[in-house]
Amino acid sequence: MVNMSELTEQAQKELAFTPEEIKELDKAREMPITFDEDCPETTPERALKFKRVNPPRKAAPTPA
After folding, report:
1. Is 64's pLDDT higher than 70?
2. Is the pTM of this model over 0.70?
3. What are phi and psi of 46, to 5 degrees?
4. How far apart are CA 33 and CA 41, in angstroms?
5. Where are the beta strands (DSSP E) in the chain?
6. What letter would DSSP give residue 7?
7. Nearest to 15 by CA among 28, 5, 4, 29
8. Backbone φ/ψ region at 45: left (φ over 0), alpha (ψ -120 to 50), beta
């Protein structure tokens, strides 16, 4: 994650969304989610069978 307060003004401008990108994001936000055969809605039964691709990391032991 980037701490914006530590970036130069030029770097902040390079990372910022353009007005066109903001319009596209606003338009996409308003569109409904459409499920189909390739991407069906997840049911509770399917959610229980879901396996994480990246399992949670085990916490490192703390030194005594």
Report:
1. no
2. no
3. -70, -35
4. 10
5. none
6. S
7. 4
8. alpha
Q: How many residues are recorded in the chain?
A: 64
Determine the pLDDT at residue 1: 65
Q: How is residue 4 annotated by DSSP?
A: G
Q: CA of 33: how far to CAs of 18, 38, 39, 41, 42, in Å?
A: 25, 13, 11, 10, 13
Structure tokens at 63: 């030194």
pLDDT single digits (tens) 6-50: 888 888 888 888 999 999 999 999 999 899 988 889 899 988 888
CA–CA gap between residue 32 and residue 41 (Å, rounded)? 13
Residue type, 51: K
